[in-house]
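re: the backbone from monday

yeah here it is again, tokenized this time
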């Protein structure tokens, strides 16, 4: 582990050799530099922020669960030179006098989040568990932002809406991950307008591919109070240098559309990247961060995910928050947490389960 650590880019040293000594240093030069490195070498540059054309349409609103929960569907619409885009948002909000905190889930291929009945309580999206604990359960599907396949040359989804009409692309043009992350910020734009939601206490949760995208969303958009990455693995929470299981070559060959073209230049050359994933996680500090792994998820590599979290912690301590009281991987099904950071290793395979969700909510109850 010590040798692995030594091979990594320094958290507190910028490319011109300047060292971070204070929170002000971190915020004024190192944090912005890391964001730019991720834009340049990994995710690409998003060409727009919040579009002026952004509109919210209430499609449906009804009471469910004997009147204890409001179920709403909101269409988030926006237009660009290439036409109109749409995010279909589902919200289940406990009815209370006060605003409630929320969990947003970024669903992926094979996961249905629209027209889910509260009682269904699927393992990956346990709406009933979430509302019963007093949180709003908010979901969107990442494929509303960009369908998860390669062969369309970035002509659909938000790329089709906002990119240049001739579809020319630079090596740092935004890929699918960046589009998915952009979408969660638009979801946050809506939540800020909903009088039932406490927008200061919103968590974003992603699993596997959307776990990677959520980390980027949380890095860029400081309105997310808690960022949760579940089994995000390669190019998510896991340190790339010395990683086992999936490597850059695998992820870039298997998913040509996820990252920008510059990232592909580092296949089998992880050591030459100016970043590694502790730097991505560090961008979430001092906000709350939770990383989850699964014991049989060798492709994601739990040890490297845990290491990513450990090595991001110096930014939390710079801010005066405690670090985890161990640097050893905790036993299975035994979550560990500090004031702002949490981790668990669930027993079992690559998945997101009710147990994972229970741990995320326990962490949010304790710290958010
Ligand atoms: C593939 C991919 C992983 C990804 C996973 C998923 O296994 O290699 O990087 O996390 O799909 O999203 O389910």
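seq for it, each position gets an aa:
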């Amino acid at each position: 582990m010590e040798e692995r650590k030594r091979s990594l880019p320094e958290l507190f040293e910028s490319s011109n050799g300047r060292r971070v000594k204070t929170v002000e240093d971190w915020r004024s030069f190192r944090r912005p530099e890391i964001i730019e490195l991720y834009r340049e070498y990994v995710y690409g540059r998003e060409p727009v922020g919040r579009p002026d054309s952004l509109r919210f349409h209430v499609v449906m609103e009804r009471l469910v669960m004997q009147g204890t929960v409001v179920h709403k569907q909101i269409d988030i619409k926006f237009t660009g030179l290439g036409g109109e885009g749409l995010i279909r948002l589902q919200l289940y909000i406990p009815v209370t006098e006060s605003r409630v905190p929320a969990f947003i889930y970024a669903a992926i291929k094979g996961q249905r989040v629209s027209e889910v009945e509260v009682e269904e309580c699927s393992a990956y999206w346990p709406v009933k568990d979430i509302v019963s604990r007093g949180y709003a359960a908010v979901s969107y599907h990442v494929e509303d932002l960009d369908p998860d396949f390669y062969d369309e040359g970035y002509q659909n989804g938000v790329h089709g809406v906002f990119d240049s009409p001739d579809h020319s692309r630079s090596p740092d043009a935004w890929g699918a991950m960046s589009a998915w992350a952009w979408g969660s910020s638009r979801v946050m734009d809506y939540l800020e307008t909903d009088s039932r939601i406490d927008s200061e206490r919103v968590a974003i949760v992603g699993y596997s591919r959307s776990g990677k995208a959520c980390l980027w969303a949380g890095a860029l958009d400081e309105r997310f109070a808690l960022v949760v990455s579940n089994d995000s693995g390669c190019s998510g929470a896991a340190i790339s240098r010395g990683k086992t299981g999936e490597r850059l070559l695998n992820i870039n060959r298997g998913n040509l559309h996820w990252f920008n073209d510059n990232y592909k230049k580092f296949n089998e050359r992880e050591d030459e990247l100016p970043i590694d994933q502790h730097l991505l996680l560090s961008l979430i500090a001092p906000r709350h961060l939770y990383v989850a792994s699964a014991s049989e998820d060798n492709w994601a590599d739990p040890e490297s995910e845990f290491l990513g979290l450990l090595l991001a912690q110096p930014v939390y301590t710079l801010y005066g928050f405690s670090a985890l009281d161990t640097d050893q991987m905790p036993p299975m099904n035994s979550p560990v947490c500090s004031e702002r950071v949490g981790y668990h290793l669930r027993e079992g395979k690559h998945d997101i389960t009710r147990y994972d969700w229970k741990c995320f909510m326990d962490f949010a109850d304790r710290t958010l």
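Residues 2-367 form a domain with the Rossmann fold fold (CATH 3.40.50.1820). Residues 208-209, 233-234, 246, 251, 254, 299 surround alpha-D-glucopyranuronic acid (CB under 6 Å).
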